[in-house]
Amino acid sequence: MNTPYQNNIAQYLTRRMKDNANWYHETGRIDDFVFNTADETIFCLIHFVISQLLHDGHTVLVLNRHDDINNTQNTAHDKLSPWQLSVLHPIMSLISDKVGDELDFNAIFGRIDELSNDKTALVHYIHHTQHDLKERYYQHSIITKSHSHQSDEQVVAQLGELMICALRFYYVTSITLGRDFDEFIKRLYANPFFAHGDDEKPDRAVVFYHDDDTLYLWLGRSYQAERELLSAIHEIRHSPIHALDLPINPSLNPEQQQAIRQVASEPFSIITGGPGTGKTFTVAQIVLALHHALSDVGGELSLALVAPTGKASQRMAESLQNALSGSQTNITLPEPMTIHRLLGIGMSGTPRYHASNPLPYELIIVDEASMLGTELARHLLCAVKRGARIILLGDAHQLSAVDAGAVLADLCRIPSLMTTRTHLVVSNRFSKDSGIGRLAQLINQPENIAFDKLIALIHQENHLSWTDIAFLTAQRSLLRQQFYKNIADEYMAPDGFFALTKTLKKQFATYGDDEKQTQLQALNERFNQYRILTASHIGSCGDELINGFIESLHRDYLKLPTVKSPWYHGRPVMILKNRYDLGLFNGDIGICLQSGKRSHELSVYFGDSVKGLPINMLDGDIATTAYAMTVHKSQGSEFEKVAVVFNDDNERLLSKELIYTAITRAKTKVAIYSTEQALLKAVNTPTIRQTGLLVHDDIKGGVN
């Protein structure tokens, strides 16, 4: 089943309640444990739905008494109130997806209403529904020839249990509770596996909180993570610090000056801004000012530079060093780290540093904070020692974290934290008249964007283009190959990346270290002139197929012999996991070059370091080809030109944040290749993550 909880759903739904009952009873958390089938049904279904939402990036399930958002869905399920639909819709969609046909749940629920007073007939009907579901699944499986690592019997059993649970939930909430929102909330108060957010220790499996018209439900661990995150910010903000009279460079713009004043007087700061607005430059001025202030009193700046990914932390350190190079002060920056490494999070997932063993640093700078998920942000903020300063840097319009939560965007919306945020607006990369800048502004506007308006802007700009790729179908392989060749042309230009790798093929191994470094700088500069960005790994617009095709082009261009090995001279690669033992970080880009006399003597070079890594040290799933990469992987990078590729197959992944992030990776030129429908979907679909940080802020009265 295409769900993160696909294994043992049947066992989960039927045994979870009793397992939890025994555990809660044995640990003494429930003195008189009493539950009935209705309690079990509500708990199992709510827990399952929230778990699915968590996998999709949400931390909370929100149920509204009157939900206008779901009115379009509710026309197909008029037996359901809006809050019931919010619970059941994910289950109905999952089941319909597996049987390849949208089931008439409206009719099924109507039949349950009719049989509600005849328990025998009702049980018979439910068994009939299960059998019908089984038949539909097998028919769909034969037609689509779909494959799964699970047996058909397992999938059918799981779908059956899921269907029964959904029908029971409907019966309990519609027949027993009469679709009454208030009665449902009362039922949660009496359910032994639910705790209210106002409880002193809400330590049950599911935590809920409500106002007059809205009910919020969290898994216990998600509730605690958000609660502890805000509590940590509260403690940081209220810890005494030594206010500093920092010198301010008069050449800085007003927002940059305000950021320095903010950090001088407050322990917790947020600095946001789009590409080129000088976030890193501003932080460099803060580091300089703090360094001078502490040097005057005989102190030293204890600094940590971190980001969610290794590549992002490296780029921040490089940008900071460049920004500091023009000053007269000699500051040695510390080695950049991922947040996981900073906290000492190993394979167990437990951090070495935490509230009882805080980090030793006086200043922690966190770049690309938009990539922070709730759990990681909680661990980080809890580990900040009292009296230290922490600065979060990021662009709230960029893609959210892969993990659940949208921490930076949420913190920027919390009223009690408004005074901690400085937003930089003056872009040094994109002027007001810049095509990329204007397109980014258009995408970020809240109003719906008409296709004509979007295309008119693109056509006005020489450095923007859009190509309709509606022709790109699985049946038209020749057209697809021609398309791949077109987007690879930048690499194949007479002075392009392919040409330079050809020049270096026989010569690189003969150079001395100084010449190697010069050539590596030129090669990386050439490669970073252009990148292909995709929404997904898979499909005709995914980076896997595109990379595979360009690999063949590159091999043919260099006239390399056909071999089974994925390694060849000129292959650009991206590191997929942190390898501290090799000094490599997730997202690092390297280029494979012939490092000896023979063509199979290959090493991978990162940046301008002349110390190559033999390819046998990078086998397996450590590296992947990188002519094309996903937009997610491109965060924190910048290129002269980008090609952005997506189509209707990527519909579920498309959003304003995705296309904004993609186009703002480019300094000078953006070429968009998509269908009209996919482009409209992207620019008009904001990412909406249901999270609970603002709810916690209301519960606790603000993070003052």
Automatic annotation (TrEMBL):
Its EC number is 5.6.2.3. It holds the Pfam family UvrD_C_2. The keyword Secreted does not apply. GO terms for biological process: double-strand break repair via homologous recombination. It catalyses: ATP + H2O = ADP + phosphate + H(+). Signal peptide: none annotated. CDD domains: DEXSc_RecD-like (cd17933), SF1_C_RecD (cd18809). Residues 626-672 form the UvrD-like helicase C-terminal domain. Keywords: ATP-binding, DNA damage, DNA repair, DNA-binding, Exonuclease, Helicase, Hydrolase, Isomerase, Nuclease, Nucleotide-binding. InterPro entries: Coronavir_polyprotein_1ab (IPR050534), P-loop_NTPase (IPR027417), RecD (IPR006344), UvrD-like_helicase_C (IPR027785). ATP binds at residues 273-280. One of its GO terms (molecular function) is exodeoxyribonuclease V activity. GO terms for cellular component: exodeoxyribonuclease V complex. The keyword Lipid metabolism does not apply. In the RecBCD complex, RecB has a slow 3'-5' helicase, an exonuclease activity and loads RecA onto ssDNA, RecD has a fast 5'-3' helicase activity, while RecC stimulates the ATPase and processivity of the RecB helicase and contributes to recognition of the Chi site. Heterotrimer of RecB, RecC and RecD. All subunits contribute to DNA-binding. Belongs to the RecD family. A helicase/nuclease that prepares dsDNA breaks (DSB) for recombinational DNA repair. Binds to DSBs and unwinds DNA via a highly rapid and processive ATP-dependent bidirectional helicase activity. Unwinds dsDNA until it encounters a Chi (crossover hotspot instigator) sequence from the 3' direction. Cuts ssDNA a few nucleotides 3' to the Chi site. The properties and activities of the enzyme are changed at Chi. The Chi-altered holoenzyme produces a long 3'-ssDNA overhang and facilitates RecA-binding to the ssDNA for homologous DNA recombination and repair. This is RecBCD enzyme subunit RecD. It comes from Moraxella lacunata. The gene is recD.
